[in-house]
Structure formats: structure tokens, C-alpha cells
Amino acid sequence: MIDKKRDNKQSALKNDHMTTLEDNLENETNTLASKHKLLMPCREANHVCDKSQYQEATVWEKVKLNIHLLLCSFCRNYTKNNTKLTRTIKASNISYMDKTCKEALKKEFDKALKEHQIN
Amino acid sequence: MPDHNINANKWIDLYSDYLFNYTITRVNDREVAQDLVQDTFFAGLKSMKNFKGESSERTWLVSILKRKIIDYYRKINSNKGQAEVRMNFNTEDDEGDWLEERVADPFDKTAEDKLENAELGDAIYNCLEKLPKKQALVFKMKTIEGYDTEVICNELNITASNLWVIIHRARTAMADCLKENWF
């Protein structure tokens, strides 16, 4: 049991190490090895993750993202938080003022404000 | 305190959505909520000289709004009282309807959920306020108001990749903020 935990920890560390390494490599060249391992750099993975929160990622992008997530604990964590954020906002049923209504209110309020300042 | 100055020019841009969300979770009617928010702004304008700067502008406006909401409930409650006097408990439709059946259902959790939603909505707007202005604006348009990427880009005159960078930063900050205060 403990050994297993330790193994997990080690592999997590390795993954972290790998992502930083990958990030470094990203700027220089996409070496064949890095391309092969993660299919896309972390920055792109996060971008696809953001897009998928708004249903704007393509199927191919999502497949690549999921493969990347299998290998990268940092991006896995980001994706987890990001999805949670989307779910929370959806659950909150948050409201905002109607745009036309807001503009009408603004006009009226500005008028009242001017009168107020004159007096 | 000098840090809490009043600047009514920006009230509607800064606070209308927060106040509206605050109201609608408590009165459950868009039109009523709009009226109450509107009344609040005008009442705030009238009593601006009473603002002592002890709290932030928004807190002060919310305190006015709270009174407006209470007044609203008082008003509809007094109407209800009059209706009750005339109510006939033995209408044909109600035959066999016992008072026990009108008691709130203990398994109905919607009221509790609603309360939690109200607080969550407030928390989201609070976090939004901590973001830089542009990030907050873009995030709100994209996530809460649900505009298309193209529409936002045109309106704010930014490129799509620019938008996604802003969204990414905003989402990271929002997740951190909500993690501290909510998750």
C-alpha cells in the first residue's frame, strides 16, 4: 500500500518534471519526442480546455487534449478546476440586468445626475 | 475615510448586475427586480450627502436595496392580508383539502437550494470585482451573458486569440478566488 503511494508520488513528480521540460522545449523546437509524448504543448492544452468550456473545441482537439491529460498532471489539475468553475457558475443560476433595460436606466440616471449636480 | 468616495457616474456600470442578481434571487421576478434596482439608484442619488464613507459604495447601495426589498414584501403581504379576509375555505375545488396538506413539504429542498444559489451568485460577483476591469468584462460577457466569441471581439475591438488569453487569465483567477471563498 505504502509502496504504491510512493510510486504514485514519484510518477507525479516525474510528470511535473516532464511538463516543465516540455514547456522549455516548446519554445525551442517541438522535438519529435515531445510531440509524440504529449501531442501538444501545455499552453495549447490549456487553450483547448478553455475552449471546451464553451463548447468551442473540435473533436480532434478534445482527443489530443485527453491524451495530453493522461500524461500531464499539471494540465489535469487545471482542467479539473476549470470544469468545476463552469459547473459552479451554471449551478449558481447567476443573473444579470437586461442590456436594453440597463441602457435605458443609464440614460435616465445620467439625466437625474445632471439635474442633481446643477442644484 | 477618504478612500470611500462616491462617484455616481459609474454606479450603473459597476453595480447594476450585482444588485440585479442580488434582487432577483430574493424576489424571483425580473420586472420587480429591475424596478427595485432602479429605485435603489435614484434613492442613492437623493441621499448621496448622507453617505459617510464608512463602507464601500456598493455596501451602501446594497443597504438601500435591502430596505427596498423589505418594503416590497411588506406591500405584497398587506395585499395578501386583505385577500385572506375574503377567502372562503370551503370552495368546491378545495373540498377535502386539509390544512396539513398546505404545510411546506419537508422533502422539498428548493428553498434551501435557492438560498445557496443566492449566496453563490453573490460570491461570483465578488470575485469578478477583484479581477482587472477588462478581464472581468470579457469573462462576464462570455461566461455569464453567453455572447459568441465573434460578437465580443467586434464590440471590444480585440482579436480572438487576445480574447482567449484574457479568458484564460480570468478563469484561473476566478477558480482561485472561488476556491478560497466557496468550493
TrEMBL record, chain B:
Biological processes per GO annotation: DNA-templated transcription initiation
Entry keyword set: DNA-binding, Sigma factor, Transcription, Transcription regulation
One of the record's GO molecular function terms: DNA binding
Keyword hit for Glycosyltransferase: no
Sequence ranges assigned to domain RNA polymerase sigma factor 70 region 4 type in this UniProt record: 122-174
All copies of domain RNA polymerase sigma-70 region, residue ranges: 14-75
InterPro entries recorded: RNA_pol_sigma-70-like (IPR039425), RNA_pol_sigma-70_dom (IPR014284), RNA_pol_sigma70_r2 (IPR007627), RNA_pol_sigma70_r4_t2 (IPR013249), RNA_pol_sigma_r2 (IPR013325), RNA_pol_sigma_r3/r4-like (IPR013324), WH-like_DNA-bd_sf (IPR036388)
Family statement drawn from the similarity comment of this UniProt entry: Belongs to the sigma-70 factor family. ECF subfamily.
Protein name, per record: Sigma-70 family RNA polymerase sigma factor
Lineage: Bacteria, Pseudomonadati, Bacteroidota, Flavobacteriia, Flavobacteriales
